[in-house]
């Protein structure tokens, strides 16, 4: 009986983890540009196994506005089973800013200048 109580207490205390990173005050689009991407890390969540997310390539019209990282119950079970330092996983959603929105503190896109003074792409 005591074991069942402790097991249920442990399961109820796990919960889920969510972290949100906001880039300035830009308004995010309603749908994510990267939806439910599985990210893998190791060595106490310090060393990333996956390649980094290409935010500039993902959000071409406007900068990224919000990144949500969450740890689901399945991720938590895998983390506990592998002792946390062997392998950890999280899910990531990336939201781009609405088109035409700029993020405060960032520079607007510029046209490259060619050394001879002309502007635009080189011929």
Summed up:
The chain has helices at 2-14, 55-58, 73-81; strands spanning 17-22, 34-42, 47-48, 64-71, 88-96. The chain is α+β, with helices and mostly antiparallel strands and 123 residues long.
Helix content: 10-25%
Arrangement of strands in the largest sheet:
1-4-5-2-3
Form type: elongated
H/E series, N to C? Answer: HEEEHEHE
Structural class: alpha+beta
The major β-sheet equals:
5 strands, antiparallel
Write a structural description:
This protein is an alpha+beta fold and 123 residues long. It has a domain at 13-96. Helices cover 21% and strands 28% of the residues. Strands 1-4-5-2-3 form a five-stranded antiparallel beta sheet. Strand 2 (34-42) and strand 3 (47-48) form a beta hairpin. It is elongated and about 60 Å long.
Write the layout of secondary structure elements.
Blueprint: H1 2-14, E1 17-22, E2 34-42, E3 47-48, H2 55-58, E4 64-71, H3 73-81, E5 88-96
Antiparallel strand pairs: 1-4, 2-3, 2-5, 4-5
For this entry, give a set of tags.
five-stranded antiparallel sheet, 21% helix, elongated, 123 residues, alpha+beta
């Amino acid at each position: 009986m005591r074991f069942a109580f402790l097991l249920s207490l442990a399961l109820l205390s796990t919960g889920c983890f969510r972290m949100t990173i906001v880039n300035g005050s830009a308004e995010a689009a309603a749908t994510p540009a990267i939806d439910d991407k599985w990210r893998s890390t190791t060595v106490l969540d310090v060393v990333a196994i996956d390649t980094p997310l290409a935010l500039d390539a993902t959000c071409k019209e406007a900068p990224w506005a919000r990144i949500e990282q969450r740890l689901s119950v399945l991720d938590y079970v895998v983390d506990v089973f592998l002792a946390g330092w062997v392998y950890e996983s999280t899910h990531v959603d990336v939201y781009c800013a609405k088109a035409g929105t700029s993020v405060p503190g960032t520079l607007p896109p510029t046209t490259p200048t060619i050394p001879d003074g002309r502007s635009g792409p080189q011929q």
